[in-house]
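A.,

Following up on our hallway conversation. Structure tokens first:
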């Protein structure tokens, strides 16, 4: 081969290599949002789906990959899609919350979302982030270890995704509009579900109950997602223990349990060994709620762990014993066991020197009922919710574009670091004047790489309850939690700064507090909100703006050309 041919040959090889790398980085998924008929609880209705599937399709990637998801809205209402727990380095443009990082994808239009995976490894999920659509528009994201690396536990024989959710007989857009119109609580769901199915204990449901077929003596990785709109869940498998190995796409120190409590928005990875007598065993979930006087669906959804082989199965299968729905001790005994794996292959970086201390109260509130309307909140008022007495008001122009284009007046930059008034947050019979918040679109601006400690404090205004808080754009370390009012002198002495869990969603206990820490290393506009959908709709939301750093790689990516218009 001549020198010139040799040179061109190597150029060709190099270009082919680049092409392969490029095609891997730009793997594409097609999400078509459209209505499809589904039958549950003896009746059929049309629901909004992705690709006609409920739950929706699973995204499967390896750590560090980037994919493009082309979202086509063939439905009749606006939609957005959020990649829950995906950090999206420098790329808030594809994060998804309506009127925070984008205007909605209107019917008949398309938006190509770049989903950039970075530090995540494990189970996450995607879901709609507008109105009540995520009740049916959601699905799993599985982030496998990088090619050439392994799990930090023995490779399981097989894996299965378990998605916990809810089902309403009524039309979901009518439910949403009724919620907004009435100012009251939304209707409680008609069924809880496992992988979209109510299970044997509901009418007209037994033939379609989800079944997981297993071989005896094997270990299975169960990826459990709580996609519910309104509820934390207890979950258990009859006669079987499981070993928790991860949560929110971050590995944990293994611990064994026969019961879990999982917040809406949270994912938990467990290893289950099929070491019982071959039979059929129920997997079951029911609602946990620490609130008094709040209506819940107290029924139990089931699926079946079904051993392969020849035997006479128990009929009905054995049902696990789940706690009472208000058993806060059982819930937080489980939640309190999480610790980061924190080994040499999975190091953690807990911020130790804090630049910014924040203290956010989480409250249920009320607004006066508008003239000539009837409202269904307490005492004829409208229900609301707030952080630091500010009930988030959705802007007409999304916050990200307003920030990017320096549009004046779209939002304020004065979200308070502390509540305007300190009082006995968890007392009973609090004065009613405390119930009315300020309505505003206020954000908190953080310098790049600011280290933040944020204490969430639940209050007993109107009705004290748990709050599953979710942060977009970054996971955080849960360094402490407790009942009652946070004591800034004593409680930090008991913080776990060695191996705290690294999560994107955490349940703040009813009339209690939770402390998190994170570094604001991801420039952009990032939503933070309660993952009870009614609380988010009522205003328990806020926004962090993380300013650009000095280096090119510390700045927000340019605006994509196909951002949906308002």
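Then the amino acids I'd put at each of the 566 positions:
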């Amino acid at each position: 081969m001549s020198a010139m041919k040799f040179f061109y040959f190597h150029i060709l090889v190099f270009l082919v290599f680049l092409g392969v790398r490029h095609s891997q980085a730009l793997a594409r998924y097609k999400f078509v949002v459209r209505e499809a008929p589904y039958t549950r609880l003896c009746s059929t209705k049309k629901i909004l789906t992705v690709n006609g599937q409920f739950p929706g399709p699973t995204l499967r990637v390896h750590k560090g990959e980037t994919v493009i998801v082309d979202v086509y809205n063939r439905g009749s209402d606006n939609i957005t899609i959020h990649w829950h727990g995906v950090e999206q380095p420098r790329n808030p443009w594809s994060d998804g919350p309506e009127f925070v990082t984008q205007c909605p994808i209107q019917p008949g239009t398309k938006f190509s979302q770049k989903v950039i995976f970075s530090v995540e490894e494990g189970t996450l999920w995607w879901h709609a982030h507008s109105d009540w659509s995520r009740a049916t528009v959601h699905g799993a994201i599985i982030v496998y270890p990088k090619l050439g690396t392994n799990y930090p536990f023995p490779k399981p024989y097989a894996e299965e995704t378990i998605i916990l959710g809810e089902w309403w007989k009524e039309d979901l857009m009518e439910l949403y509009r009724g919620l907004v119109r009435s100012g009251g609580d939304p209707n409680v769901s008609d069924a809880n579900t496992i992988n979209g199915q109510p299970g044997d204990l509901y009418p007209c449901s037994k033939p379609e109950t989800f079944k997981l077929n297993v071989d005896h003596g094997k270990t299975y990785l169960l990826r459990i997602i709580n996609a519910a709109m309104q509820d934390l869940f207890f979950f258990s498998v009859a006669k079987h223990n499981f070993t928790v190995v991860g949560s929110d796409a971050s590995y944990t120190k293994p611990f064994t349990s026969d019961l879990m409590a999982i917040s809406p928005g949270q994912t938990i990875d467990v290893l289950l060994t099929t070491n019982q007598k071959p039979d059929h065993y129920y997997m079951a979930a029911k609602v946990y709620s620490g609130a008094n006087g709040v209506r819940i669906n107290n029924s139990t959804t089931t699926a079946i762990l079904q051993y392969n082989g020849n035997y006479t199965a128990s009929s009905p299968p054995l049902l696990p014993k789940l706690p009472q729905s208000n058993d806060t001790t059982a819930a937080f005994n489980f939640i309190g066991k999480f610790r980061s794996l924190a080994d040499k292959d999975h190091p953690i970086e807990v911020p130790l020197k804090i630049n910014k201390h924040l203290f956010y109260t989480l409250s249920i509130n009320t607004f006066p009922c508008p003239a000539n309307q009837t409202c269904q909140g307490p005492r004829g008022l409208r229900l609301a919710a707030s952080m630091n007495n500010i009930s988030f008001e959705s802007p007409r122009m999304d916050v990200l574009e307003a920030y990017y284009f320096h549009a004046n007046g779209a939002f304020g930059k004065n979200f308070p670091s502390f509540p305007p008034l300190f009082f006995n947050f968890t007392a009973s019979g609090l004065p009613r004047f405390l119930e009315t918040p300020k309505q505003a679109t206020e954000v908190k601006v953080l310098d790049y790489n600011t280290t933040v400690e944020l204490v969430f404090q639940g209050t007993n205004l109107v009705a004290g309850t748990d709050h599953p808080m979710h942060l977009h754009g970054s996971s955080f370390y849960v360094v402490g939690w407790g009942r009652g009012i946070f004591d800034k002198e004593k409680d930090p002495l008991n913080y776990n700064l060695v191996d705290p869990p690294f999560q994107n969603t955490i349940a703040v206990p009813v009339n209690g507090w939770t402390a998190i820490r994170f570094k604001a290393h991801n420039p952009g506009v990032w939503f933070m909100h309660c993952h009870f959908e009614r609380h988010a709709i009522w205003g328990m939301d806020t926004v962090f703006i993380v300013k650009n750093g000095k280096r090119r790689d510390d700045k927000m990516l340019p605006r994509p050309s196909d951002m949906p218009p308002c």
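The chain is about 10% helix and 35% strand. Curious whether your intuition agrees with the design.

B.
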